[in-house]
# Entry
Amino acid sequence: MSASNEVATRSSESIVEQALDTTLRAGADSADIVLVRGRSLEARVRDETVEFVKQAQEQVLGIRVLMQGEGGMKTAVTSTSDLATPAIEQMARETVALARATEADPAAGLPEDGFATHLPDLNLVEPSDRDTQVDVRIEDARAAERAARAYDERITNSEGSQVGSDFSTIAYGNSNGFVGQYESASHSLFSEPIAGSGENMQRDYWMTAARKLAELDSPEEVGSLAAERAVRRLNARQVSTTVVPVIFESMLAAGLIRQLAALVSGYSVYRESSFLCDKLGEVIAAPSVTIIDDGRLPGGLGSKPFDGEGLPTRRNVLVENGKLNTWLLDSYSGRKLGFPSTGNASRGAGSPPGVGTTNLWLEPGNESLDDIIARTDRGLLVTELLGMGFNPVTGDYSRGAAGLWIEGGEIAYPVEEITIAGHFGKMLEEIDAIGSELLWMGSVAAPAVRIASMTVAGE
Amino acid sequence: MAEQDKDSALTFFQDRYELDESRLSDVLDTTLEREVDYADLYFEYSTQDSVAIEEGIVKSGSRHLEQGVGVRAVCGERQGYAHSDEINPASMQLAANTARSISQNSAKQGAVAVGRGNDAVSNLYPVAMSPTDVAVEQKIDLISQMDIYARAIDPRIKQVSASVITQHRSILIANSDGQLVGDVQPLVRLNIQLLVEDAKLGTREMGYQGMGGRYEFEKLTSPDMWKPLVDEAARVAILNLGAEDCPAGAMNVVLGPGWPGILLHEAIGHGLEGDFNRKGTSAFSEMLGKRVASEGVTVVDDGTLAHRRGSINVDDEGTPSKKNVLIDDGILVGYMTDRLNARLMGTEPTGNGRRESYADLPMPRMTNTFMLAGEEDPADVLSSVDNGIYAVSFGGGQVDITSGKFVFSVSEAYKIENGRVGAPVKGATLIGNGPDVLKRVSRIGNDLELDQGVGTCGKDGQSVPVGVGLPTIRLDQITVGGTQG
# Structure
């Protein structure tokens, strides 16, 4: 029996405990360990052909060492995918040496207390899904591909339909006494058909993702929605440069909410790299805007019982009726800003803790997207954004876009090769309609939103 | 010879994991028990280190070790892939059994005889000392000096952060043709980021610069290297403090040399990757031999430039890198391919089969993509434009391969008024159509520059280091996105 098989049969918590012990014995003043182990499969079908099937077993162990220095702690982080005892011992020694070489930071350190004591079952995995054969998932991809190609004769080609399933165990422990682990899974299906041909060719996509296979949207729904989106983009044109109301589809509104969350992350705030860094407690958005982050939604793709530092996850109302209520914090950025952690530490095995969202959403309004379009005399419904034209320091926002032009409250024709621009702060204040339908894109959700005016640049 | 052997990827893998020729042949034989066209094994061992300074404190150091093996079986256009982060006979056999399941038919193919093998014949990036072997104290010293120097440049500089990242990546590829080839790929990167504030104007801006490549860490420590980098970050950040909002609409645009070559990468490079063209999903499909750019426009993808970030001795399928001409005097003459797409398209692999790591399937990817120099004085190119935008540097970009639409964000730009460079503008985005944009090139400068070694390209979730380059060029009537209608 090889050394690796010994590792495979041990529980994640016990590996974490042993690695923690090894690290402290190597001389660390305090330390934490994170272990991610998982297995994944991915497959893509294009037309009737299985393009690839990919399967893997993965494991990675992260070590963070803190050494007492003058006026603060010195920190180093390392990771290794080799979990054999000698490899961990060597990594622990190297981490201690590396931490000694860095400088003392008054804000560095583990959380003192407040660790998660009760770990609720958040419904993050369906045990019977573990036995699912790869062929079953491939059939999902085939069904989506067929539905996309059958939707309309103008669907001529595709980049394929892809499925993924992964199961992982995340374990975390630190020298202040916390050790815990949880299991989770995620499954997805993505379809990307192509409509048209030659110089008039358009792609688009649709997807579904969930913790449990049974909660995925049907492959037929995913494929035909993707096809509908691609077809409606055919024969797109440019428009003349103008200033109009701009409606963000749910999927893209979710992107705006994600950007807002990055602007209120403790790290952006203490580094002053967010234009919102001095706006805590102030009104930053229209009164209809309420944004929530909740790490404990049952079955949520962003749910977890404890965060990347062992603190309990919770519900945080970031923006309440337009007012900025709180920053998103881990213990480090919290110390920098004088607040306790909000339970938003995210931690990959290969990186120090940072701030991340859990399940993040914009509270829906009570108007359907159709109604919002109907009361837009002339404007743009954005269905795709391209590029990274956003400056978080100034709030300047300018991105490539494609979508549907609205005339007289109705969809008139598709548009592309345009940009939409504005100031992010002003965009938040000018949200004048919020849709009623909340659409989850992974762990972020939003209904459609309308922004009263943005510059649309074209011909 | 003995000198070379010490750093050989082949020797490293043989010693560390006992991967001799017969063991490799055994695993390949397992995949070939099914009817497959081709199989390969990809081994990787990489170390990445970084240290960063922020608020004048070297807050953290990091070191990451990654090892693993990926086994691939190719059957027509189908690929089976399995990878493991353990490299031992059991995990390799398991991966081979999983990968070959892409093919249902059994076959009795002749046993593979993996050759003696060697590292890539040429070495484009020999280093006296691996950058990850340099003591962390030396790296800390460098970023600390940069921090002190930056703070003294201008009182408007409020925050400074600097980091150095070093990487040492060894790869070994064995395939069913009996090839066995290894490579050792060093990589260094230095970053500086500054936050500046003008209290009077009430404005804040960020300035960022980076550089790097496949060379010794030592080279970065020269003040001739890092001081201009810090100066440039400060200059651009302070410039943008007083920048006006960018005008919007279609206008003539002059692109400066170097990093604006990202235009080529986004607008046409991705569209010329073999996978999209084989499937007919690229706006450039079926355009081989056709005019896609103005006369005088020649674009190459060259993985063979010494010490460049985008260079590779061999690609991640073992094919030696090449200098590939993509557009010759305005005519589309070649696509970039990996083995699978080359075989299916009936062409030769171009040395562009790359992957982020052992956990990924290879795909056609760019290396260093640039336009060759023209003959014009860059000053004449600028003065030829009455009114427009002079774009000197860019942030990121993105392309929709199928519709051909691309976009990129400008990080340093000026108005051109009556043929002269005027006030700085901010927040501009350029958008256009790939198959069309290079037909809008009306003047080409004689000042080709390659970027400073900061490019990272993302495709299908995989990131690989790349380079870009451009001489000063003029583009007629491109859509500029801004807020000032």
